[in-house]
Design a protein that fits this description.
alpha+beta; five-stranded mixed β-sheet; globular; 60s Ribosomal Protein L30, Chain: A; 7 helices; about 30% strand
Length: about 350
């Protein structure tokens, strides 16, 4: 059975410019074995590789401990960064993939992706510190640096209710050593439940940097009438980051939930109202860079409870029909938050 490929693309009137695609690849038959579902997804990925320049892939797996190794061994030896995260797709299938791919070239858009970074240290705090230290060294080897060039991170935490505090402290302590403070800026980020195949590796990170950034090219998004500064409750990430290129703007919206301007959870226990407030918050962030919900090219929606899937999907489809999104099981960093969404928009 063929996989389903849902794609949003962005291009300008310049036919020789860069066209960007964000595709979600998934299967339609949850009853298939993992091997059959994997074959369908990998076949679709091969088609994208043949027709475009694939820059980054993330696989969402239902059981990473039993699936990741087989998946990695079965696919060809691709050179683009690939991430494997246990975040079960909520449509009942065993895997899905997010693929960022392009056609053409741009003189000023040079995205540098990294994926699947982890550490063998003991404890979430030390693992987070090790991951950022190693990532910083990797950027330095490319002539980049974390404080100036990294615009987005994705941090996946095994047993987020227990280990998120260590991740927060490890990130905050490392950031202070490279000059990232409430008086300077942080990095847009999602920090959420996600599992590495090795249960001892409690933290996994993907990241995106941009080569050639110039002063004033990066804009930080706050929506302070809707959301509080993250430093108000001790965490160190930006609500959103926009990068302005010659012919387009990328807006990277961090994981966003039902929160108010004082940092409080709104509508505890009511997933329908939390979803509506979440979308309102995302819309407010996007508006600061002249984007709307209609400009979203990819989104990931995270749910704590699988029983909320149909309700949340229905609310989002009513507000954002045709949204290019993947829905996965992944508890948010506060138990009272029932739903969270991240996205990328291009205008």
């Amino acid at each position: 059975m063929e996989a389903i490929v849902q794609t949003r693309k962005f291009s300008t009137d310049n036919r020789e410019g860069l066209t960007e695609f964000h595709s979600f690849v998934r299967v339609s038959c949850p009853e298939q074995t993992f091997e059959d579902q994997m074959g369908s997804v990998l076949s679709a990925l091969a088609g994208l590789v043949a027709g475009s320049d694939v820059r980054f892939v993330r696989f969402f797996l239902s059981d990473a401990a039993n699936q990741q190794k087989l998946l990695a061994q079965t696919m060809p030896s691709y050179t683009f960064p690939i991430s494997f995260i246990q975040q079960p797709p909520l449509d009942g299938t065993k895997l899905a993939a997010w693929v960022y791919h392009t056609q053409g070239e741009s003189a000023d858009i040079d995205l540098v992706w990294d994926a699947y970074m982890s550490s063998g240290s003991m404890g979430a705090l030390d693992q987070m510190s090790d991951i950022f230290s190693g990532y910083g060294r990797k950027l330095n080897e490319r002539g980049l640096n974390l404080a100036d060039d990294c615009v987005r991170t994705w941090i996946y935490v095994h047993d987020v209710d227990v280990n998120y505090g260590g991740v927060v402290k490890g990130r905050r302590d490392f950031f202070s050593t490279v000059g990232l403070t409430p008086d300077t800026h942080f990095i847009a980020s999602t920090g959420i439940e996600g599992r590495h195949p090795d249960p001892m590796r409690t933290v996994v990170m993907d990241a995106l940097a941009v080569r050639g950034l110039k002063p004033g090219q990066v804009q930080y998004l706050y929506a302070k009438d809707h959301l509080s500064p993250t430093a108000d409750y001790g965490v160190t990430f930006e609500r959103g980051t926009a990068v302005h290129f010659e012919d387009r703007t990328h807006a990277y919206i961090s994981g966003t939930a039902s929160i108010d301007s004082k940092g409080c959870v709104l509508y505890p226990g009511d997933v329908r109202m939390q979803t509506r407030r979440m979308l309102e918050n995302v819309e407010a962030l996007l508006s600061e860079t002249s984007a709307t919900l209609n400009d979203i090219v990819m989104a990931v929606v995270y749910l704590r409870d699988t029983a909320d899937y149909l309700v949340v999907r229905r609310v989002i489809e009513e507000r954002c029909p045709g949204l290019n999104a993947e829905f996965v099981l992944a508890p948010v960093c506060r138990p009272a938050w029932l739903v969270e969404m991240e996205c990328i928009a291009i205008v």
